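Standup notes, structure subgroup. Blocker cleared on the pteridine-2,4(1H,3H)-dione input:
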Amino acid sequence: MSFHDPELHSRGESRFVDDLQIPEGTLHAAVVTSSLSHGILEELSTAKAEAAPGVRAVLTAVDIPGMNQIGTIIMDEPLLASNEVSFIGEPLAVVIADTPALAHQAAELVRPQIRKLQSITDPREAFARGMLIAPPVTFCIGDLDKSWEACDLIVKGRADSGGQEHLYLETQATLAIPMENGSLRLHSGTQGPTYVQRIAARVLGIPMNMVEVDVTRLGGAFGGKEDQATPWAVIAALGAYVTGRPVKLVLDRGEDMRLTGKRHPYSSDYRLGLSSEGRLLVWEVTYYQNGGAASDLSTAILERTLFHTTNAYAIPSVSATGICCRTHLPPNTAFRGFGGPQAMFVLECALRKAADELGMTAEEIQALNLLRTGDIFPYGMEYKGDEVERSWLRLDELHDLKAVRKSNEQFNLSGGIYRRGMAVMPVCFGISFTNTSLNQASALVHVYTDGSIGVSTGAVEMGQGVNAKMAAVAARVFGVDITRVKVETTNTTRTANTSPTAASSAADMNGNAVRIACGNILNRLLQVAGTHFGLGDPNHLELRSESIVRNGAATDLGWEVLVNTAYLERVNLSSHVHYSTPGIHFNRDTNQGVPFAYHVAGAALTEVTLDRLRGTYTVDAVRIVHDCGDSIAPLIDRGQIEGGLLQGIGWMTIEDLKYDTASRALLTDSLATYKVPDIYSTPADVEVEFLECHSENAGVFNSKAVGEPPFMYGIGAYFALLDALGSDDAERRRNEPMTAPMTAERLLGILIREKRKDS
Ligand code: LUZ
Ligand code: MOS
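Run returned:
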């Protein structure tokens, strides 16, 4: 009997890196980081730290045996700074000591001398100074000049969205254990075991087969451990390699918040052209992405922004430019949605402005322009689904959008200090890594002689329930109880060359590999059963409810006897399968192709009540129709939808990163100053309906990816608040940039200004 994560979590028995029994003699690492956001490292004296009690080693860039380079896409990030420092929190040295406390105390004794240089943290300013991480990229479709001429209305403006702290429950952590013959085992909390393996090998100057990375599960990640688990894992590996002893590194919460990158803040300029009936004709946008000090995944994230520039709408002429700006902040990184949410926010801003000008409601413009089957995305791909429109229609059918608006208007006439607002947020999100080569996965399945099953894949469990999905797939193929299936740790010696668990695609790709691997073993078992029944071919045999079923009738040949019989017949009870998503390609010279296996769509209605006196508000209800395909785990999918929604609402309304204007140090580096949605700010009413599935999907057993798309329903909260501001905000909307998050503080500021104008 094998328990899965929900049971283990509720028993408090799940193990995270910090819970692993450490080997005797384990040492502990603390990192010395830059306290200046930009400068030249002139001196780094480690003598005092080396002499401190319990200290075994103090390592700097010169102690790195291989390359001092941890870049993934662009090689622009040292593990330990040796010359220029370019953000607060950049690692400079590592102290290895007998206890975490001794390591931290000694770290205080390392005195870096940094000559201060000017720092830039605004992406537009960085752009003006030519500080780019990569050349700008433009996605372009249609005849723009002609389209502008055909417009009856052109609105333009600026939209800014903020960063976001991942706030995974488990902070960054690794336990590095030296093994025989110079090899290492790393227990790392990473979404990308192969990234950690590859970069540890690069930094240590050893082959990848000398580094084993093992991941049991993560306590949340949300993209924050796609690339950014790597430095901490590699620092621990370096410590273990140099000292020959196990080394553990666990960031505390404050360190984790200060040292690691966030969601990318964006500042964008747009121009939207429409016909007088509200048809979207042309969309021109420039995204200034705040990349931080190193490239990390920024270029890939910016590309996903461009892929989602028109979200769920059909716009015939589009020119979208992404500019990846280098600034002196910690390198920003992957975060649920991966640049998609930033794009969708800008277009919704433009739609609201157009609605004001045309005297239409936002929903009227939205509904008129939803993607229909056969429409072409700005990257040349045809939209094959019909779920964008169907989910909108279903939402309208369930909740009568016009009636909600009408009843809000009624309420607002008599509501005193309270105002109600609403917004509908349609989402259409492309599923596949936009880097085509990453769309591969594998599974290794063993059936043991007692009938128990072990499944290894490249997928990393991070609370999203991927292990339960893998177990469900294996149980379904074999026709056995799910408790027979154990999902093993994600380990680079069992599953090599893994793509990170990211892009919402892990269950699809690893699940398909599990399905095929189990199918291979099943076919061999059915052959054995066929022989048992004296049949030439096993065509009429199936495995169901743990027994062989023959021509639809149960037999007394059960799963355990069958497996054992197969073993005695020397039949292979294991299968390793590689899966690569079929049919996808993308040309980066033309920016055209079919980058996605499919799209996930849905729509959400958000309703809020604003207190016009205090600027406070409640998100009263969010009603969602979401396309999961044929869900293989409805409860897990519902959890992803609700969790994604809340995280999106947090990004849009309360999560406000603040930096000291002089030093650029992060001020919101604790849970006292950085607020995320909690049980009290959760909408009282969250309704989720799964859209009926009419299509064949590339996900496993006709399911669809679910990790990221629901995040973007949260964008509706911003626009529902804007709607509640109503005419209070119309003039501001005409003249000022739209800025997220819409905190209560910002709302109060708007309300006070309006009041002053009135009196
Ligand atoms: N990671 C990545 C991602 O490397 N490529 C992607 O396209 C992606 N999309 C979403 C989330 N993570
Ligand atoms: Mo991600 S944003 O690691 O799918």
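Discussed briefly. Residues 506-532 form the longest helix (27 residues).
Next: hand off to the docking folks.
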